Design the sequence.
C-alpha cells in the first residue's frame, strides 16, 4: 500500500475509533445534556413523574415569591409549639385551648395523647390542613372554605409567643435550602393597626368612588391625616419592626436571602382596610426587610367583592403617596360558578390599570375578563408577571390541567413565576409545583430556566441584591447541569 494512503487510513481509524467517539460525546455541554435529558422526560405520552420529581428536586429554583408564612408551616410544626407552650387541642372542634380558658378545659386533649390516638390525629389534620381531603370531601366544608378556615387555628399559638415566629422563619429557611431555593419573599405578618371609623366607612362606600372625584380624595386625605396623628399607629408599627428584626436576625447568609411583604386583609370594613393598608405601606417604606405590600384573604367573600373597586382606589391612592413601594396583588383568584358572572370581568384589569400592581398573584380568571387582551398586552409591555400557584388553584378553585390559564400568559408573552402559596396547608412544595408545571404543560427546559430566573428578576429585592441572586443562581445551574449530564450518560 502506498505510504500516503496508509497514513490517511490510519487517520480515519483514529477518527472513528470508539475512544474518539466517546470523547466526542463527552464534549456535549452539560447544558445540552441536561436539556436533552429533560426533553426526553416530558416527551412521552405519560411523563415519568418520579424522574421529573428527582430532576426538579435537584434543580435550583431561585426564589419562592408568593408564599404565606402561616400557610407554609405544617400542622406538625404548630403542634410542636402547642405542646411547648403547654396548650391543648379541643376534642370537639380542634381549636387551640390555653390554660386561661378554664371553661373549655374538660373538652381538651394534650398533644401527646392526640398523637397517640390515630383516629383523632387523622381528624386533626383534616381540620388543620388539606391532608386527605379527597377521602372525606363529602363530609367536609367546600374546598375554598376548608382552605381559608385552616388559618383560624394558627393565630392563637403566636399570641404572646413571638419566639415561635422566629422559629417558624428558621424552619422555612431550612426547608427552602433543602429544596434548592435561595430566596423567600414571604407574606409574613402585618403591623396590625386598624382604625375603625363608621363615618368614613359610609363615605368611602358612597358616591363616586374614584380618586378623580375631589370629594372622595378629600375623604381619604382626612382619614390618613387622623391615622398619622394616632400614637397607637406608631406603637403598632414599632412592634412590627421589632418582630421583623427578631425574625430576620442572622437569617441571610451567602446562599440564602429572606424578605417580607406586608399585607392587608380584604374582608374588613373600609376604615380597617385603609388604615391597615397605610400601615403596610408606611412600614415597607421604612424597613429594608419589608419589600412590598399585598392584599390577602378570600377574594370571593361578600365584603371582598362588594369593596373590590374601592380597594383598588385605596391602593392607587397609597401608590401615589409611596411611588417606590412595590405591590403584588392577589387578583382573579376566582372561577366560574364561584361568584356572579359579572365579578369575573374586571379584577385583574383593575389591579393592573387602577391599583398599579407590580405583580399579579394567581390571575386565574383572565379568560373571563372583558379587557383580557388589553391587560395581557400591558402586563407584557410593563413586565408585570403573574405568580402561578397550581396546587392552590386546583384545590381552592378546582382549576387545573388545560383549564388553567398559564398557557394564555406565556403565549401572550407575560412573564410568569412559579410559587407555592401555602405549601404547609396544601402539604406540597415548590418542587411539586414544577413537577405539575412540566408534566401538565410540557414547557421546554429553556422556558423552565426562564421561569426560575424570573423569580429573582421580578422579586422586590434591590437591584444589587438581584444581581447577586442572579449570579448565585447561574452558579447553581452550572453545578446542576454537571450533575444531570453525569446522570444522563449512565
Ligand atoms: Zn396567596
Sequence:
Amino acid at each position: 500500500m502506498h505510504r500516503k494512503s496508509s497514513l490517511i487510513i490510519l487517520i480515519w481509524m483514529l477518527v472513528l475509533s470508539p475512544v474518539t467517539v466517546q470523547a466526542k460525546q463527552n464534549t456535549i455541554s452539560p447544558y445540552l445534556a441536561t436539556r436533552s435529558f429533560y426533553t426526553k422526560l416530558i416527551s412521552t405520552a405519560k411523563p415519568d413523574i418520579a424522574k421529573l420529581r428527582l430532576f426538579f428536586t435537584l434543580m435550583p429554583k431561585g426564589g419562592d415569591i408568593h408564599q404565606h408564612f402561616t400557610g407554609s408551616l405544617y400542622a406538625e410544626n404548630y403542634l410542636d409549639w402547642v405542646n411547648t407552650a403547654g396548650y391543648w387541642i379541643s376534642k370537639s372542634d380542634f381549636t387551640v385551648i390555653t390554660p386561661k380558658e378554664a371553661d373549655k378545659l374538660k373538652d381538651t386533649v394534650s398533644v401527646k395523647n392526640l398523637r397517640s390516638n390515630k383516629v383523632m390525629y387523622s381528624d386533626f389534620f383534616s381540620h388543620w390542613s388539606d391532608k386527605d381531603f379527597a377521602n372525606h370531601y363529602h363530609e367536609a366544608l367546600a374546598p375554598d372554605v376548608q382552605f381559608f378556615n385552616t388559618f383560624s387555628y394558627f393565630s392563637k399559638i403566636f399570641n404572646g409567643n413571638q419566639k415561635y415566629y422566629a422559629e417558624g422563619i428558621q424552619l422555612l429557611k431550612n426547608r427552602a435550602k433543602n429544596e434548592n431555593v435561595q430566596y423567600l419573599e414571604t407574606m409574613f405578618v402585618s403591623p396590625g393597626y386598624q382604625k375603625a371609623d363608621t363615618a368614613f366607612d359610609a363615605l368611602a362606600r358612597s358616591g363616586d368612588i374614584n380618586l378623580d372625584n375631589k370629594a372622595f380624595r378629600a375623604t381619604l386625605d382626612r382619614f390618613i391625616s387622623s391615622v398619622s396623628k394616632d400614637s397607637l399607629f406608631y406603637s403598632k408599627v414599632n412592634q412590627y419592626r421589632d418582630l421583623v428584626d427578631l425574625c430576620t436576625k442572622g437569617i441571610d447568609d451567602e446562599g440564602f436571602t429572606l424578605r417580607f411583604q406586608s399585607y392587608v386583609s380584604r374582608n374588613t370594613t373600609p376604615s380597617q382596610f385603609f388604615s391597615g393598608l397605610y400601615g403596610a405601606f408606611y412600614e415597607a417604606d421604612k424597613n429594608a426587610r419589608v419589600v412590598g405590600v399585598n392584599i390577602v384573604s378570600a377574594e370571593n367573600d361578600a365584603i371582598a367583592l362588594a369593596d373590590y373597586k374601592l380597594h383598588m382606589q385605596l391602593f392607587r391612592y397609597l401608590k401615589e403617596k409611596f411611588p417606590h413601594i412595590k405591590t403584588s396583588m392577589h387578583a382573579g383568584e376566582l372561577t366560574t360558578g364561584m361568584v356572579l358572572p359579572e365579578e369575573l370581568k374586571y379584577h385583574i384589569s383593575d389591579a393592573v390599570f387602577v391599583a398599579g400592581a407590580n405583580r399579579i398573584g394567581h390571575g386565574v380568571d383572565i379568560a373571563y375578563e372583558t379587557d383580557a387582551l388589553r391587560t395581557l398586552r400591558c402586563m407584557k409591555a410593563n413586565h408585570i408577571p403573574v405568580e402561578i400557584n397550581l396546587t392552590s388553584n386546583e384545590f381552592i378553585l378546582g382549576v387545573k390541567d388545560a383549564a388553567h390559564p398559564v398557557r394564555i400568559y406565556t403565549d401572550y408573552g407575560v412573564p410568569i413565576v412559579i410559587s407555592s402559596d401555602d405549601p404547609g396547608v396544601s402539604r406540597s412544595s415548590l418542587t411539586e409545583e414544577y413537577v405539575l408545571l412540566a408534566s401538565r404543560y410540557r414547557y421546554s427546559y429553556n422556558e423552565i430556566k426562564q421561569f426560575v430566573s424570573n423569580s429573582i428578576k421580578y422579586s422586590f429585592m434591590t437591584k444589587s441584591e438581584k444581581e447577586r441572586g442572579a449570579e448565585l443562581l447561574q452558579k447553581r445551574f452550572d453545578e446542576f447541569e454537571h450533575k444531570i449530564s453525569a446522570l444522563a450518560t449512565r
In short: The chain has 26 helices and eleven strands. The longest strand covers residues 257-265. The chain has a mean pLDDT of 90.
